[in-house]
Write a structure and sequence with these properties.
This protein is mainly beta. The chain has 4 helices and 54 strands. The strands form 14 sheets. Strands 28, 44, 46, 49, 52, 53 and 54 form a 7-stranded mixed beta sheet that branches. The longest helix is centred in the first third of the chain and has 10 residues. The N and C termini lie far apart (86 Å).
Length: 654
């Protein structure tokens, strides 16, 4: 700004130019705010403590736009700036709960570090903003389901898989000296849980499955495969079990393994397994032994005779040890999604070269360094696919940890969209080591875990999360989560959860090995709300249970509430549960038509939409599912049913 100075000297007028700097007048920013934020007031902090729990230091760019946008993105409807460079996020209830009081407006007098024209609080003074309206909604339905005690166990379980025989295969630390006669493997007959002496069938493993990966194979017998394990020969372990018998009748098959003749090409502790679209088995990651160097490779089973199928993955080398049990999913394009630590990428299914690097997975409101895979351990699952399978597929990841501070959000992405971005949805509480379970109606249970810490032995986590949540992807973002019933049993490290054929959810395990949280032997079931309404479950029978892609197959249904015009059909893939991982998870709603009680279901069109494998087929009469019936889709294109041809193994055929 230029001004003019007039001087009189000996009656002569002298005009001199003078430059005057205009001072900036600081104000509270009340307009041009992001979203639905509105300014509230200047707030007194309660001494050295703070009203809000989450602090972000923005040394050079703190302002209303940056601070409020970050808080809203992670689901916090109350926020404010303090001491020029601090951004704080929380809930409205925090203000009264933590004794925040109103201060004179003149107390908030410091300029923002990133906006010298506006105030950003003061010393122990918060420039408070509140979101106008509902930023998010957590539903609290009247029917919250319920937990029920099912049966006492024999030893703490570490890995659980539902077999096509309707029984649950449990693996644990074994053979173990900690429990009398423990062999490390048992099978639970759900029809005999009222008769403890008959409910459990003892089985046998030769090596230790601690922290192995597991899937259900697409062969004729739906064999369960586990890979990797704990120390020495166990880390190379390849174990197979063909479920047999029937409810009330024991099978005779046992786990088959020979560490000398059938083994992985490298030791793996905490690997993930996946059935690829071509029917082969992909095994990724892990470490060569307990707390040992990384095995930053993938390999393929069955191994080509005399061949090496390992591929080095520099991104696993770089992110070790925070990438164990990486998330793997086959996408409709045929590409393979892999999520590890706080990164994700898409791989070519033949060369395994990276096709696309996705944006980093968001962490917490205060840190982008938080992780989602073990040991920070969240859980990942594919959201349902619906015929005609033209909508982009969505991957959901819930929970995790910021190096000991558990995360309170789920994030989702459509990785094959033109510009994939992560969507953040806040959960009602923090959760590390969650288990996620696909339900027949297309919703997902989120359960188990802790509200603080990391996965692992020795008290790395505390404050068990006893609440069950329901995630409904059919609802709008930020209104998909419902708070359901609570359990009384802590389910932390080494807990499992899985869908049973009758629609209940089996919940087992917990083995953090601390005095506060001892090894947990009790097995529970959760009764979802759809079974808690007194409705009779529909009945479905299926003459042909071996389906080809795109084929049409007959099912017979009996409904008790509605008509087939309002019926739904779902296919829930067979999975294995360990450490919050649901390896092989997938939910499909296929096309179908009905004439009377006879319906024709069209199988998924190809192996990218639905990799070869076994699925439970459910029909839903309104909200109520039938009992699931296993069908195989896509056959056994890799001819796993003929593998391995070694003494002591009994391949079932394709």
């Amino acid at each position: 700004m230029r001004s003019t100075l007039f001087l009189h000297a000996f009656f002569r007028l002298v005009v001199l130019p003078v430059t005057v700097t205009a001072l900036t007048v600081l104000t509270v920013q009340k307009t041009n705010l992001p979203g639905n934020w509105q300014y509230s007031r200047c707030l007194v902090e309660p001494g050295p403590a703070h009203v809000f729990p989450y602090k972000i230091t923005l040394a050079q760019n703190n302002n209303a736009q940056n601070c409020l946008s970050q808080c809203a993105a992670f689901g916090y409807p109350a926020a404010g700036m303090e001491f020029s460079n601090e951004c704080w996020c929380g809930d409205v209830a925090d203000i009264s709960n933590n004794k925040g009081t109103t201060a004179p407006e003149t107390d908030c007098s410091m300029a923002c570090s990133g906006d010298p024209s506006h105030f950003c609080g003061g010393f122990q003074r918060l420039q408070l903003y509140l979101w106008n309206g509902n930023l998010l909604t957590w539903n609290t339905p009247a029917n919250t389901g319920r937990f029920e005690y099912l049966v006492p166990g024999l030893a703490p379980t570490w890995l659980a898989t539902l077999g096509v025989n309707g029984k649950v295969s449990f693996l644990m630390n074994g053979p173990s000296p900690d429990y009398d006669n423990s062999t490390g493997a048992y099978e639970l007959d759900l029809s005999l849980v009222t008769d403890f002496s008959r409910a459990w069938r003892q089985m046998h493993i030769k090596t230790n499955i601690f922290c192995s990966g597991a899937i259900v194979l697409p062969d004729k017998a739906a064999r369960i495969l586990t890979v990797g394990g704990y120390t020495d020969a166990s880390t190379f372990g390849v174990r197979l079990y063909a479920p047999d018998g029937s409810p009330g009748v024991n099978g005779v098959n046992d786990w088959e393994e020979d560490p000398n003749t059938l083994k992985l090409q490298g030791g793996r502790w905490y690997p993930t397994a996946l059935v690829m679209a071509n029917g082969s088995v992909l095994v990724v990651g892990g470490e060569i032994g307990p707390n040992a160097p990384a095995n930053p490779t993938l390999e393929i089973l069955p191994r080509i005779p005399g061949g090496n199928t390992r591929v080095f993955l520099d991104w696993l080398q770089r992110t070790d040890p925070n990438n164990l049990y990486p998330f793997l999913h086959v996408l409709p394009s045929g590409l393979i999604f892999v999520g590890y630590y706080n990164e994700a990428r898409l791989l070519d299914p033949v060369t395994f070269a990276t096709v696309k690097v996705l944006p980093n997975i968001p962490g917490s409101v205060t840190s982008s360094a938080a992780g989602r895979s073990y040991p920070m351990e969240g859980a990942s699952i594919l959201l349902p696919q619906h015929a005609p399978y033209t909508d982009p597929i969505t991957i959901l990841v819930c929970g995790g940890s910021n190096f000991g501070i558990a995360l309170d959000n789920c994030v989702s992405i459509q990785p094959e969209s033109a510009n994939p971005t992560w969507v953040i949805e806040r959960m009602p509480s923090k959760r590390v080591m969650p288990c996620m379970v696909a339900l027949p109606d297309g919703t997902f249970m989120i359960m188990n875990g802790a509200q603080q810490g990391l996965a692992g032995f020795g008290g790395l986590a505390s404050d068990p999360n006893l609440s069950a949540l329901l995630y409904d992807p059919s609802k709008p973002v930020n209104s998909r989560i419902s708070v359901l019933a609570r359990t009384t049993i802590a389910r932390m490290y080494h807990s499992e959860a899985m869908l049973l054929p009758d629609g209940r959810v089996l919940v087992s395990g917990s083995d953090p090995r601390t005095r506060a949280f001892p090894e947990e032997l009790r097995v529970e079931v959760f009764i979802p709300p759809y079974l808690n309404q007194g409705f009779t479950q529909p009945v479905v029978t299926i003459p042909n249970k071996d389906w080809s892609y795109g084929g049409q197959f007959q099912i017979n249904v009996q409904l008790f509430q509605g008509q087939t015009s309002g019926m739904r059909v779902s296919l829930v893939a067979a999975t294995s549960s360990t450490h919050g991982n649901t390896m092989g998870g997938r939910t499909i709603f296929p096309a179908f038509s009905c004439q009377g009680n006879v319906c024709t279901v069209t199988a998924p069109p190809n192996a990218n939409v639905s990799p070869p494998g076994w699925h439970q087929l459910f029909v839903l009469d309104g909200p109520t599912p039938s009992h699931g019936v296993f069908v195989r889709i896509g056959g056994d294109p890799a001819q796993l049913g003929k593998w391995p041809t070694l003494p002591g193994f009994h391949p079932p055929g394709v």
